[in-house]
Design brief:
It is built from twelve helices and 13 strands. The chain is of the alpha/beta class.
């Protein structure tokens, strides 16, 4: 009996631990050679499937594959922002054609809510076309905005713990800078990722759970304005002489010359200006309550692609939830996403379950109102109790070579094409 081949692909913005999930799939598949045939990685996600650009992961150097666990971002096999909409029937049919040509019986898709929507549609279409295909989703997003506000779909997403750790450590260091330079630069403005959700902005509080810093947080959900922000900052300047401000990239400052990515989302890093710069300009133009100026910093995609700030908890969970996805696919069949649940008890512990892809598809959550402090510029202790365990205690191991970080480097050679070349619908002019 012919063993079904496997395709794994990544989609959307990467994270510091996305490759740990990739390694989880690889290890789980390799451990069951009687159940699976060849394992393919799709080069740059669904674009690689559409263009039949598949990499034989079984032919890769095992030492390189082992480095995936500590390799950030998605450079190993690539990701993309190619959104598959319902009307792109040719693209969906092409995916089925590629899978049929290469004997693919399992498809694992690592991504966020848009990716789970795609996975759900591919699963349904394969059934309609008589292709015996099992599709399973593996969650990923640093924004933590996948799921519902009751946290029943997923407790937290792989990637969030590492980005939260980045922000906790960054704000700790900014506090030292601000303390030293406050006589001339009394206000430090930082911008965190998160279009409509403030989970990363909120993570800044993990740097100071006892609230000793002059720290103010401005979430997309809190509905502050530039003027109310200035009033709050000047009030803090009057009390302590300095202030650290963290704003969501989606904080409403008016138009920022928005540009959009392939999913249709605002891509703030490509836009004409930023929320942080608008805040800095407003504070400096309207005037501060003390001498000196406000200064701004925008880390951008660095917060999702720095391996030395990854959370060891996040690395482990990204790996385990991917392994669980393989188990779910084998045991329960198609149409599921592996998910992370929080086990009850006084000590933090993660468990793994499954959720219907259709339930996850295009789900979205924001920072719960109950976790935003009454003043609208802080979070409650309930949030810190939720988020603190996710950043971990120990620093992650980072392999070095000649003093530089050593990342996985796969041999990117595509397997032989079996069907005619194809141009994805959205690439046609």
């Amino acid at each position: 009996m012919t063993r079904p081949n496997v395709v794994v692909a990544q989609s959307g913005g990467p994270s510091p631990v996305i490759n740990s999930s990739l390694q989880g799939v690889i290890d789980a598949v390799f451990e069951h050679p009687r159940d699976f045939g060849t394992l393919y990685g799709a080069w740059h996600g669904v674009e690689g499937i559409l263009k039949e650009e598949l990499i034989d992961l079984g032919s890769q150097d095992r030492n390189e594959l082992a480095l995936l666990r500590s390799t950030p971002s998605a450079g190993a096999i690539g990701t993309c922002r190619y959104k598959l909409k319902s009307e792109q029937e040719e693209d969906f049919e092409r995916i089925i054609e590629v899978f049929r040509a290469h004997g693919v019986g399992y498809f694992f898709y690592i991504g966020g809510n848009d990716s789970m929507d795609t996975a759900s549609k591919v699963s349904a279409l394969a059934h309609q076309r008589g292709l015996d295909l099992v599709v399973a989703g593996i969650p990923k997003t640093i924004d933590n905005d996948l799921g519902d506000e009751e946290f029943r779909i997923i407790d937290h997403t792989p990637g969030y713990g590492s980005a939260a750790r980045y922000w906790a450590h960054l704000v700790q260091n900014v506090e030292e800078e601000n303390r030293g330079m406050c006589v001339s630069e009394p206000v430090a403005v930082l911008q965190a990722m998160g279009r409509k959700s403030g989970f990363l902005t909120a993570a800044s509080r993990l740097a100071d759970p006892e609230r000793r810093m002059p720290l103010q947080l401005y979430f997309a959900e809190s509905h502050h304005t530039l003027e109310s922000l200035r009033e709050n900052v000047n009030r803090e300047l009057g009390a302590s002489g300095r202030c650290i401000v963290v704003v969501n990239e989606g904080f409403d400052v008016g138009g920022v010359g928005e540009r959009h990515d392939g999913f249709g989302h605002v891509e703030y890093g490509a836009s004409r200006t930023t929320a942080a710069q608008a805040v800095v300009n407003h504070l400096n133009e309207k005037g501060l309550a003390v001498r000196g100026q406000a200064t701004g910093q925008v880390p951008g995609v660095i917060q999702r692609s720095v391996s030395v700030q990854a959370s060891s908890v996040d690395i482990d969970e990204a790996y385990e939830v991917a392994r669980h996805a393989v188990q779910v696919a084998c045991r329960d069949g198609t149409g599921w996403m592996a998910t992370i649940v929080r086990r009850p008890g006084p000590m933090y512990a993660a468990g793994y379950d499954r959720i219907d892809l259709g339930t996850v598809a295009n789900s979205a959550r924001v920072l719960p109102k109950s976790w935003i402090a009454a003043n609208g510029v802080d979070v409650t202790d309930d949030f810190t109790r939720y988020a603190a365990p996710l950043i971990g205690e120990a620093a992650p191991p980072v392999p070095l070579e000649n003093g530089l970080q050593r990342f996985a480097r796969l041999d990117i050679r595509f397997v032989e094409s079996k069907i005619p070349a194809y141009t994805p619908v959205r690439f046609r002019r």
